[in-house]
Write a structure and sequence with these properties.
With 214 residues, this protein is mainly α. The chain has a single domain, classed as Tetracycline Repressor, domain 2 (Orthogonal Bundle). Helix content is 68%, strand content 0%. The chain is built from 9 helices and no strands. The longest helix is centred in the middle third of the chain and has 27 residues. The relative contact order is 0.14.
């Protein structure tokens, strides 16, 4: 679950500032390519071409090479989604907040005209990540998404442990649905998963005693 385009999905404004021109275009291009081809299926030349950058731009802006591009692209994508989740959960009731999060995931999933992957998951699954650098960045992104969803539930009286389990299930189910949609070539598997998550949430909230402490 992560943004496909160069437009931010969060409240953080435009892509990274500074040398936004080339470097930020390359970060966004890398995230797009990871969605389409996976991390291992994307090369530095692909990023340069997608970003319309000069051939030497990779090592000028990313001296750490492809790993640094992967870290920055996954962090950027993860942050953009996290900001939207946090915004949705800040003021809304749990059902409305979770529904907004699931609607966001669907918009991202079909944003390119058909099901695409998740750049955060792409780096987490990389066989090239021999030292765990990419997995650590992906784990931080997933943890931030889970924390925001769980916090929305605990603020409404759901016990912390149950809220954490629901949040983990939601993130895992959405990421799994992305894979199903890629295989099926359509959005229907995601919609089934979305409805299942909302059914589970209704059941979970139905067990909460009004005004009970988290």
């Amino acid at each position: 679950m992560a943004d496909r385009t160069g437009q931010p999905v969060g409240s953080g404004g435009a892509p990274p500032a500074g040398r936004r021109d080339t470097r930020a275009r390359m970060v966004v291009a890398a995230a797009e390519l990871f969605r389409e081809r996976g991390y291992d299926g994307t090369g530095c030349r692909d990023v340069v071409a997608r970003a319309h950058a000069a051939r030497g731009a990779i090592y000028h802006h990313f001296p750490g090479g492809k790993t640094q591009i992967g870290v920055d692209a996954a962090r950027w994508a993860g942050d953009r989604v996290a900001q939207r989740i946090e915004a949705a959960c800040a003021d809304a009731a749990p059902v409305d907040a979770v529904r907004a999060v699931l609607d966001l995931a669907e918009q991202i999933l079909i944003g390119g005209g058909g099901p695409a992957g998740c750049p955060v998951a792409a780096v987490a699954l990389s066989a090239e990540d021999t030292d765990g650098t990419l997995r650590a960045v992906a784990n931080n992104a997933f943890d931030r998404w889970r924390t925001a969803i769980a916090g929305c539930l605990t603020s409404d009286g759901v016990a912390a442990a149950r809220a954490a389990r629901f949040a983990a299930m939601t993130v895992a189910a959405v990421e799994g649905a992305v894979v199903l949609c890629r295989a099926a070539g359509g959005i229907e598997p995601y919609r089934d998963v979305r409805d299942g998550i909302l059914d589970h949430l209704d059941h979970l909230l139905g067990t909460v005693t009004p005004n009970a402490a988290p």
